Amino acid sequence: MKQIRQRLTYANVMSSIAVFFVLGGATAFAAQQLGKNSVGANQLKKNAVTAAKIKNNAVNTAKIADGAVITAKLADGSVITGKITDGAVTTGKLADRAVTTGKLAEAAVTTGKLGDAAVNSGKLADLSVNSNKITAGAVNTGKLADGAVASAKIQDGQVLATDLGETVIRMSAPDVAVPNGGSSQVTASCVGTEKLLSGGGLWSGSNTLDAQLRASFPAGNTWVAQGRNNQATALDFTAYAVCLK
Length: 245
Prior knowledge:
Layout: H1 2-7, H2 10-32, H3 161-164, E1 167-171, E2 175-178, E3 183-189, E4 195-204, E5 211-219, E6 222-229, E7 235-244
Antiparallel strand pairs: 1-7, 2-7, 3-6, 4-7, 5-6
């Protein structure tokens, strides 16, 4: 201690105090007296600029790196319609089944937007297809259900003989040699799936002027003919049936 006191002088004490102020106070002085734009990237520590140090609206488009704004950085509902460029939402950006009925404008789905055979029976409302929607000639035989065309649906006079199909005449075995004053009843029947259309009875012989056809009528798929021979000579009597194949 004695040696230290011998060396302490007014000059070296004042020198030490001066050095202290230079080293300790210069830092605070320098911070307040930094020139404009004198602190660059090299002078900043890593992570030195915190959120509180960034002025509101200081980060503009030029300060954001490409791809820096990821999904997690977007608040829910932050991307509004006005922020989406025309044509930006492509097919690949839509989730499956994302476009619901409520998102379609009235009359937005045109014919060109429907795939071939896209509208099936399940997509048509009951009674939605009226006469105006059916192309001429579109309803062919294959489209008619069995028994669908009733009599009320056929105009008068529209069914011609040629439309009925082929006909065939079925004859009964003749009642041979019916004497004068004698009566006869004979029948002719259609066969298989044939349908009876009409029929009659016929006298045949040398003279049939006085022969009578007293009754002629259908009975099921059979035609019945009744007659009387008023001729002086014997005559043959035959029934016939007109059948639709």
